[in-house]
Queue: 2 jobs
Job 1
Amino acid sequence: MQESIGPDIADGAARAARHRFRRGSAFAGGLLLIYFTFISFIGFAPQLAGALLQPGLSVALLLGVAVILFMCVLSFAYAATTNADDRAIAELER
């Protein structure tokens, strides 16, 4: 036998789902923007991207590492905010 949930819980869960979708879309859009900007930079300015800062270290390599680190930070931020939503939904269910 399944219990029905109250209207307050259903409304709060629906709000949380919409909020999570918007935030997820914003994070995904940010990731895509950063990646496409980096790839466009490599494609449209190869001389600048290939410029050496030091022997063995080009601008593209440095920016590539920065992109990867930034993506890790964004991923951790998304996970932290999503976990906070999960805790809020769990509180609504109590």
Job 2
Amino acid sequence: MIRITAKQDGFRRAGLAHSASPTDYPNDHFSKEQLLALQAEPMLIVEVIKDSNSDTQGDQQMGGDASQTTDVTAQPKPAAAKATAAKKAAQ
């Protein structure tokens, strides 16, 4: 699953207006080129999330610089952080 959150509501990239609220897309929604462009865009936080139907090797969050695995400007919501920690502990 690919989760995209815009730093500014309505920001457009890859033919879509992205929301300031996280929006989930199936892994095959974007072409490889589109996904790379989205990950390189500093106005977007792009997370590639491993799910039960995915062959993704692990959770990755990228925003602005595809060489980084986290966006330090984005702070997880407390409930999301707890859920992520619990998910990782279960693995």
